[in-house]
Amino acid sequence: MFNFSELKSIHLEISTRCQASCPMCPRKYHGGVENPNLKIADWTIEEFKHIFTDDLLNQLDMIYFCGNFGDPIMNDDLIPMCQYIKDKAPNMQVRIHTNGGARSTKWWVDLYNSLNDNHLVYFGIDGLEDTNHIYRIGVNFDITIRNAQAFIDAGGKAEWVFIKFKHNEHQAEVAEQRSNDMGFQSFTVKNTTRFIGEKRYSVVDENGNSLYYLEPPSDNQVVLISTEQMKRSSEIINSSKISCYVQNLKEIYIDAHKNVFPCCFLASAPYHYQQKEEPTDPFRKMIYNFHYKVLSQYHNLVETLGGIENIHAMNKPIKDIISSTEWQTVWDHHWNVEKLYTCARVCGKTDTSKPKDQFVKRVKND
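The chain above was modelled as a monomer; its predicted structure follows.
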């Protein structure tokens, strides 16, 4: 892992709260059933100032407000945090990822005023009036567009991020034209990689009853994980070569509980929804067991790092956490000897001569 002096970027989750119930987000099981493992947490401006000292801010190139479970705009102190960055490090790159469906237009103007010139807000808008809510459950399209327009009209720099499904793929060109008309700086289309082992994904109500299905777009390039691949997952992972994305980027992740990890993928393990009873379906059973392997590795990793209190940013400065012997020495073992499933799945590559054996990676897309 890189030294503290090389650290250039920090990815932050400042809240686990969100008004949306996106079916493929682990906040809720398939959009409807509450995740009992998810704990509500928010950063305060006081905690932010405690962690982001002048020396740390002056060293960084970028701060990215996003995370695994929440939307940063749900944190009441986001604007004071951005203002603090603007005052202390006016050249800092600030990136914010949001569904944009909360707050007043005045709040969005105030957000723009708190940001320095080197900012970009990503709005996750997956369709138009008649489709955005199919995936972005709980998000009012008109409010999102109203807020985005207020931010842009105030001078804000924004990007429209469009996750493509079968139900909205026909609207991508129209959405892009609308983004141009509104003044978005860019428009990005993404394919989700969360159709794990199936060609459609159920959306359920609070009792687990199926409401409808999400399906990938017709041009989806994602290779679905097969039963055979799941059976051979340990073999595939052990043969993979891990090239850590955040090691190359010189980035760390701090979750909503203020725990420091290299990336959001490693940090998320204990908070994902997991069925209490082992599934009877063979494929689902393998996914279930895979999750527990990932969770076991997570706990072993935290123990090796000295326990969760030893990587808590309110207990120890970021510099001390990254510079510790545990942090500096543990990764080589977990990448090359006892490989972390999460690292291999997200940043691992297998023999390119056997593309069918590639264990499909997940990228953050919502």
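The first strand starts at residue 9 and ends at 12.
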